[in-house]
Write a structure and sequence with these properties.
The protein has helices at 46-59, 75-82, 85-91, 105-116, 135-149, 155-176, and strands at residues 2-13, 21-30, 33-42, 66-72, 120-125. It is of the alpha/beta class. It has a single domain (2-179), classed as Ribonuclease H-like superfamily/Ribonuclease H (Nucleotidyltransferase, domain 5, 2-Layer Sandwich), CATH 3.30.420.10. The chain has a 5-stranded mixed β-sheet.
């Protein structure tokens, strides 16, 4: 079965303020081929851009018999899927644990529908903005990644993940440019 790897990121300058701009970016990798996509919006939030990055990346995939690995530095996105938050939201009429309406419900519903349309989608939390030149930080986060995700990737493979994550981060920043 074909395996697609996606790195996605969102950004927002002035997050939480009335006047702000956001961007999202994603890098899709199949074998050695890379596809880069990005976009942005004004009057948004970082969380909206994080969700949008994952949605837009999955929307580019037409074949559904895929194994998709999504890497993100957004605990908001990754934890929703890895901890099953969305199952509870659905059961509770889209109320969160505080009995309040789930924020960004329409985006979550869109993302969940896309995720469920593929054979397998796995989410991986990756440390954002990690400096690959700081070997002690790389070593620490590499070990943490392997422990959290029960993997055994090498440090060289982890450095490749970091490089692709940086690329997604840059695309998110590029996506803001037209709105500044």
């Amino acid at each position: 079965m074909k395996n697609i790897i996606i790195f996605c990121d969102g950004a927002c300058s002035g997050n939480g303020k009335d006047e702000n701009v956001g961007g999202w970016g994603a890098v899709l990798k199949y074998k050695e081929q890379l596809k880069k996509i990005c976009g942005g919006a004004s009057k948004t939030t970082n969380n909206i851009m994080e969700l949008t990055a994952a949605i837009e990346a999955l929307k580019t995939l037409t074949a559904k018999e895929l194994v998709v690995d999504i890497y993100s530095d957004s605990a908001y996105v990754v934890n929703c899927f890895n901890n099953g938050w969305y199952h509870k939201w659905r059961m509770n009429g889209w109320l969160n644990s505080k009995k309040e309406p789930v924020e960004n419900r329409a985006l979550w519903e869109n993302l969940i529908e896309l995720v469920e349309s593929f054979h397998t989608v796995s989410f991986y939390k990756i440390k954002g903005h990690l400096d690959a030149n700081k070997k002690s930080d790389v070593h620490k986060w590499h070990q943490k990644f392997n422990t959290e995700h029960k993997t055994n990737i090498t440090e060289a493979q982890f450095l490749e993940l970091i490089a692709l994550n940086h690329m997604a981060d840059q695309l998110a920043n590029d996506g803001m440019a037209p709105f500044k």
